[in-house]
Amino acid sequence: MTKYQAIKGMSDILPEESQVWQRLEEVTRSFFRTNGYEEIRTPVVEVTELFQRSIGEASDIVHKEMYTFKDRGDRSMTLRPEMTASVARAVIENNLIREAKPLYLYYIGPMFRAERPQAGRRRQFHQVGIESINTPSPFSDAEAIALLARYLRVVGVESFKIKINTLGCPKDQAEYRETLKAYFSKESAALCEDCKYRLEKNVLRIFDCKNESCHKIIDNAPPMKPCGTCGSDFDTIRELLKSVFNVFYEVDRKLVRGLDYYTGCVFEATSAGLGAKDAVAAGGRYDNLIKEMGGADLPATGFAIGIERLLESMKADSSPLLVEPRQKRIYVALAGVGLDAIKRFSKVLGGFNSALCLLREKGHEVFFHFRPDVSLKSQLREADKWGARAVIILGEDELTKGVMTLKDFESKEEKKDIAISELVSIFRWD
RNA sequence: GUGGGAGUAGCUCAACUGGUUAGAGCACUAGACUGUGGCUCUAGGGGUUGGGGGUUCAAGUCCCCUCUCCCACCCCA
Prior knowledge:
By secondary structure, the chain is an alpha+beta fold. It is built from 16 helices and 16 strands. The protein has 2 domains: 15-169 and 226-322, Bira Bifunctional Protein, Domain 2 (BirA Bifunctional Protein, domain 2); 329-426, Rossmann fold (3-Layer(aba) Sandwich), CATH 3.40.50. The model has no long low-confidence stretch (mean pLDDT 91). The chain binds one RNA strand of 77 nucleotides through helix 3, strand 6, strand 10, strand 11 and helix 11.
């Protein structure tokens, strides 16, 4: 008999942790909604070509990290490795931009990449992100970066850094690639094997090399020279971040993004406690993606936050969100009451049960499960561990008289002979 | 895909160069207190040592295969 287990790199989120996720999700939804972003949900599966075209063949995501399979109609399908392509598709397909207005969207959900699992890297992972579409102004870049910074603080991450850079327009980028190719080709003898490979495939990524021996060569590489518009846009973004949004950032000329669709300003948030890869969020401008996918000419910018990584950062910074808020919990202990007794006292218990439901409607968490053969002592112990603030004790004595015994765990007081009809009014904790 | 480390009770980990019946803490259950939580004490239950194969008189320990987890590289949030 083989034991079933979760697929490599895909983990269960168990009840304890799930509570933290729920709290984070609530705060997240409320944050983006109050900032004028609306949620979009798209299917988890798309035709493979969508990602090939948007992310680009140069990226490893496409040619070795996608969950791609044939469906029954023999079409090639892929589990989404990121969200921007799907959102772009949905915007075009549903004609979401009919007037010359911007569109502010956020999303939250699972993504899939068949990488080898590592710290902060799972095969099924979760992202929350925004796409602000039809927003050509550099103000939108600054706004997005500021939004990210504010969000991180809201969820209790303080120790983050924002890095920004500009990749320039496609023309700038093409020129810069040529410049870099020429430069690194000359130095190629001293480069590591990985960088030699990058030189052929995607020069920009040489900047990501962690090899000490390559650093000197990288440091002396010619800097990006954006054209007039791109340069002044980037200056504007920096100015706005400083003066309007009050966001601390550093310009990192080595910051390049791995996805093909990025143009102009790109950025990244790094944080403590994340292992080798310390990016918790990243994003940038993608002015041509929607046009290239067959839509209108809609400049856009956006970012994605890795939720698993975010949770790690929250732990490192002791985010208050990780702490479970005090619950209004009530535990019902049945003392020596078996199934036969339950049947005998079904009338009393029926009224009791209705009262419990009223308590639940008022927001109390009520534990009322049948635990035969578990002593009262153990039930009280269980109640304590569960975090109950009060326990209602029902035994044959109480049931015969139609009353209950109430034990308050905080004041340690115990009240007897309380009528069941008083149940709803007796708990006033808020 | 490449490289390193690790899988022993529900959890965290012991078990010297292969050698009696694989142990401890925590957790769990029960009792002390026969209907009363937290603290203490006592007792108890719990294991195909990830799975499969091999070497050996003898394997948790050595060898091979496989699975999973952790870490790093490539790449990415």
